[in-house]
Specification:
The structure is a single chain. The chain has one domain. Helix content is 57%, strand content 6%. The chain has a two-stranded antiparallel sheet. The protein starts with 9 loop residues before the first helix and ends in a 5-residue tail after the last helix. The protein is mainly alpha-helical.
Length: 181
């Protein structure tokens, strides 16, 4: 039996792969969450689990906290949007946003950094010179073959010109991003 496959853009694929986020996104995007310190947010998560009679799974709670930290960083530094295309980062798209290194300097990756406290994450974001991109913009920048051959991949001359200009704008937007002090 052949299983039917569905082609998804990278943003949509990322969304389907994040079950903990999907199950707790209402909690992760609680409106006034950031009026609390992170220690208090952790306590609120425990209260949420107790109130909803959920099994207290420390791994799940850690992963919820990772999502909350990611949300905070994207709201704080990047105005809740992709630095390149301006796509808004919201309750339905947080899981498809990626921290992209603008330079070759990479001291760590998000998988390790998300375990730090917020101050440590902010230091890493600045030190490693990361910007926030939606998964679609990120994959375009990471696609070396596409970037090298964009002008010959497409036969339509108008489309080539349009895509080349969009790629140049994307790179300029990323390069010109400035961090808050």
């Amino acid at each position: 039996m052949v299983k039917e496959s569905i082609n998804l853009c990278v943003d949509c694929h990322e969304k389907t792969q994040s079950l903990i986020y999907q199950n707790f996104k209402i909690l992760i995007y609680e409106k006034d969450l950031f009026i609390y310190f992170f220690k208090e947010i952790k306590e609120l998560i425990y209260l949420y689990f107790n109130k909803n009679k959920l099994v207290l799974d420390k791994l799940v709670i850690k992963r919820i906290l990772y999502w909350i930290k990611k949300r905070y960083i994207i709201e704080y530094f990047y105005n809740s949007e992709c630095v390149s295309c301006g796509k808004p980062c919201d309750i339905n798209s947080l899981q498809s946003f990626i921290f992209h290194h603008r330079t070759e300097k990479k001291t760590n990756i998000w998988g390790a950094v998300k375990k730090r406290n917020i101050k440590g994450i902010i230091e890493w974001i600045k030190e490693d010179d990361c910007v926030c991109l939606c998964a679609n913009c990120h994959i375009i920048l990471q696609s070396k073959i596409y970037l090298k051959y964009v002008d010959i991949i497409f036969n339509d001359e108008d489309l080539k010109v349009k895509l080349t200009k969009e790629l140049q704008k994307m790179k300029l937007d990323i390069k010109s991003f400035k961090f808050k002090n």
